[in-house]
Amino acid sequence: MGLCHSKTNVFPSTPEEKEKNTKINKQIQEEAKIKEKNDNSTYKLLLLGPADSGKSTFLKQLRIINKMPLEDIDIENAKYTCVSNLLLSMKLICQNLESLSINLSDENNKEYIKIVIDKTDEVLSDYKEKKIIPEDLSNACKKLWEGENAIKECIKVGNTINLLDSAEYFFGKMNDIFNSEYKPSNDDILHQRAPTQQISETIIPILDSNDKLSVFDFGGSRYQRMKWAAFFDNVDLMIYIFAISSYDQTLLEDPSVNRLVDAEELFKQLSENKILWNRNIVIFFNKIDIFKKKLSISPLSKYYPEYKGGDDYAEAATFFAKRFLSLNANKERTVSTHLTWATDTRHCSTIVKLTIQSLQQYALVNAGLQ
Ligand SMILES: Nc1nc2c(ncn2[C@@H]2O[C@H](COP(=O)(O)OP(=O)(O)OP(=O)(O)O)[C@@H](O)[C@H]2O)c(=O)[nH]1
Ligand SMILES: [Mg+2]
């Protein structure tokens, strides 16, 4: 980035020399400003959006991609979260098979369903201390996952019971997770679901740069949103994350509200916010892996009758991109959109690089240097 400049003449005598000196001094000052920006910048980034949309997952990816290991994450806590995500998902399925009219492929499996329903809560309340999953419970889960079709049938309609998006992932890792020596991998940590209860700030040094990110992660449920506004000052970029796959789901905190209707309303409110008015926004249309699979099983037109693109992924994504862009209240600001898959590190690394680049460019523009 260095601008070339020769040494200034300390005692200019001719008008030409004076003019040359002024030019060089200006160049030096601008270069210093750019250097200061490049050397010392800490960019304030907000991760906002509804609950369960992937904000904390993206924060973990920001860390992994910038080579800031997740080691300081409490590993015992992470282990408990993976175990409880697995067991509570299996229990939720067992409890809902009847109401969803899904029949067992083998009636003998009723015995295992009963064990899961009766034992899960007790085992989880003892787990933190004893670190043990009794064999009858782990065996019941294994038998159901490996030999009972009803479990897989239920996952397909998981949206109706608000089943965790990572349920299938954790079922597939059952043998590892039930092992007493189990240690969660990065992938397990990226898939776990633990709603954010407290706002956190994480300082992440940007890889191959002297800049840093100061990332604020918020809880997205309606109860958590009232805490947000206190953190809106001096923001460099707001990343708005919502789960594009959640068009057929309702809010946990209010089952009468569709998740995408809520996500649109929330985005509109944030875009109208006076403190954030001049801030650029990046929107992540997250969980595209689930969205792609879901379109053929759960028609989008059922929820948006005006949508005519069938199960075509590109059509459906464009449909939502247009909707969100039209909701932005300040047409002067830059709003960019990305289709994201926050649990996939390779996919995220391109998005993270692009986001950091645009953040650095915005900052230079704001500082009047471009
Ligand atoms: N399949 C899939 N799962 C995802 C994706 N992004 C996040 N998840 C999962 O979705 C769940 C919710 O993600 P979180 O990052 O906890 O969501 P959040 O927005 O921080 O939620 P709150 O803290 O409650 O506001 C976790 O189990 C994640 O692993 C994605 O792109 N694809
Ligand atoms: Mg979170």
From TrEMBL:
GO terms for molecular function: G protein-coupled receptor binding; G-protein beta/gamma-subunit complex binding; GTP binding; GTPase activity; metal ion binding. Residues 1-12 have a biased composition (Polar residues). Keywords: GTP-binding, Magnesium, Metal-binding, Nucleotide-binding, Transducer. SUPFAM superfamilies: P-loop containing nucleoside triphosphate hydrolases (SSF52540), Transducin (alpha subunit), insertion domain (SSF47895). GTP binds at residues 165-166, 190-196, 286-289, 342. One of its GO terms (cellular component) is cytoplasm. Residues 1-22 are annotated as: Disordered. The keyword GTP-binding applies. SMART domains: G_alpha. The keyword Membrane does not apply. Mg(2+) binds at residues 56, 196. One of its GO terms (biological process) is adenylate cyclase-modulating G protein-coupled receptor signaling pathway. PANTHER family: GTP-BINDING PROTEIN ALPHA SUBUNIT, GUANINE NUCLEOTIDE-BINDING PROTEIN ALPHA-5 SUBUNIT. This is Guanine nucleotide binding protein, alpha subunit.
